[in-house]
Amino acid sequence: MADIITLLPDHVANQIAAGEVIQRPASVVKELLENALDAEATEVQLLINGAGKTLIQVIDNGIGMSPTDLRLSFERHATSKIKSADDLFSIRSKGFRGEALASIAAIAQVEVHSKTAEGETASYIKISGSKIEEQEVSVAPTGTSIAVKNLFFNVPARRNFLKSEKVELRHIIDEFHRVALTHPEVKFSFLQNGSELFDLPAVSFKKRIANVFGNKIEEKLIPVEEMTTVAGIEGFVVKPEFAKKSRGQQFFFVNRRFIKSPFLHHAVSSAFEGLLRDHFHPGYFIYIQVDPKTIDINIHPTKTEIKFEEEQNLYAIIKSMVKHSLGMFQATPVLDFDRDPNLDTPYALHQKIPTEQPPIEVDSSFNPFKSSEGSRLKTTQSSWESLYSGLEIPNDPFPLDNSLKMAIEEAPKVFQLLRKFIVTSTRSGLLIIDQQRAHQRVLYEKFLIGVTKRNLLSQQLIFPKEIELSQQQMALFGELEENLNAMGFAVKLKKQKLIITGIPAVCDDKQLGKLFEEILSAINSDHQTESFSQADYMAKMLSKSLSIQSNTVLSTQEQQALLDDFFACKDTLTSPFNRRIFITLDKEELENKLN
């Protein structure tokens, strides 16, 4: 039998490795930013074109590389971070596997300029699909500038799997946040298509959080801190009343590396138990420092999962720490801003105004059972009755003609059950409708019609509403604007604010704050990719936010109006979220239940 096992060519092996490390443009951003930090950079600049598909460039002022190191850095398993197997258990750097640059060069066109502080000139190298095309001397400042162009140019199948620019940009911003939040002492800047998204100066941890998520978040944060022999922990949790339905503000950092840990997340969630509304999630920024020998960070190609040696102890410490901080917060007095201070007695007058008990006068001779008083009551009663003398009240106070009476008697009766269901009769039995799901269906179809026909009624606000946006929200809001306007909202961006001058007729202006908080939170969500289109996703989200909620009392007229709108819908079987809207109970089922 002929030999059938052969060694893979280098370029094929590199592309396989790239598939593990480089999944999308955000993966490249993560690796390049981490390399810059490992190079001891104090200033890092990220330049993106075409959401990373066209260009990803990272410029740093780190220690740079010599010509030999620059060439070796693109070889597989080439790294300056580890020398022996023992080093794998005491890792303090970001990258260490030596596959990032080799993987990137295998599926992109890469150009690098790098210079050390001791070097008189810089080195330049150009690689395309793992092949070195140029290497020469160049002129550049100390540090490294690496440009990755035309990602997946030689793997078209992988490129076709990339999402829209908006989705890919959101993933890049997420990776940028994770790196920037762990290194507040480093100055970061981020430009997308020539427009500045972030300019983050070197600051404290708390200030870096505010610079990333907006200054208003500072007042929402509660500090947490615990120092033990297991770990040193510090950071912040978001006050319960500011919790969101999205999971965007949940960060664990271990030894300055972002990680995902459902186990530790459960510890934080347990500490918030009883403080959050249903379907709301806690926000937190928790920095954990442990001995590198007690963790294993080499269990996943992206290094976002870590195995802890003392996981149970860490769980207990985090839960106790967060619970203690939340308890201290709950114990603080609450200022009542709705109280009218004009009704208060000035403090200075408390000592000056004498307090006297009001006099009470009692008629000791009063007796309500004396005959004179009884006759007086009778006289009063008769005088009231005299007002109605001469008036004859017919047996039927609201006479109707016979045809209208018959119509009312034959009309289907509706009533509300448990403040959740609308019940009406049919020819064969009963129809039980979930009022919230039915209203979601009505609103969903109205919003979709508004997008296609652009005829949804809008009402102008007397006082326009202003909402401050973060840099990230500003960058991603553009694509939402057109659909919001088509759905009846009148919105525009002005500097770093969203100005709302009109809303759909089905929307109450009192709902605006909560509604746009959910809309802006959804920008960071991955759920949009589950919908057919962005318009479909927006229609679903608005229908969910604006629909009648369970436990809402509806008048008979409101119940009937909802039924009329609901049965005019194209689809009456399921809600926009594919949940059943109604059930029927026919005569036979009802009789069987009584037997």
Describe the structure.
The protein folds into 3 domains: 10-202, Histidine kinase-like ATPase, C-terminal domain (Heat Shock Protein 90), CATH 3.30.565.10; 206-331, Ribosomal Protein S5, domain 2 (2-Layer Sandwich); 421-583, Ribosomal Protein S8, Chain: A, domain 1. The protein has 17 helices and 22 strands. It has helices spanning 10-21, 25-38, 67-72, 100-106, 156-160, 165-182, 205-213, 262-271, 311-331, 371-385, 402-410, 435-453, 471-486, 512-522, 534-546, 556-567, 587-594, and strands at residues 43-49, 55-60, 109-115, 122-128, 131-138, 143-149, 187-192, 195-200, 221-227, 232-238, 250-254, 257-259, 284-289, 295-296, 307-308, 414-417, 421-425, 429-434, 458-468, 490-494, 497-504, 582-586. An 8-stranded mixed beta sheet has the order 5-4-3-6-2-1-7-8. Strands 9-10-13-11-12 form a 5-stranded mixed beta sheet, with helices on both faces. A 4-stranded antiparallel beta sheet has the order 16-17-18-22. Strand 20 and strand 21 form a beta hairpin. Helix 8 (262-271) packs parallel to helix 9 (311-331), helix 12 crosses helix 15 and helix 12 packs across helix 16. The termini are far apart. Mean pLDDT is 83; it is low at 331-339 and 343-352.
Please tag this protein with its features.
34% helix; Heat Shock Protein 90; 595 residues; alpha+beta; Ribosomal Protein S5, domain 2; five-stranded mixed beta sheet; Ribosomal Protein S8, Chain: A, domain 1; 3 domains; globular; eight-stranded mixed beta sheet
Could you provide a short overview of the structure?
With 595 residues, the chain is of the alpha+beta class. The protein is built from 17 helices and 22 strands.
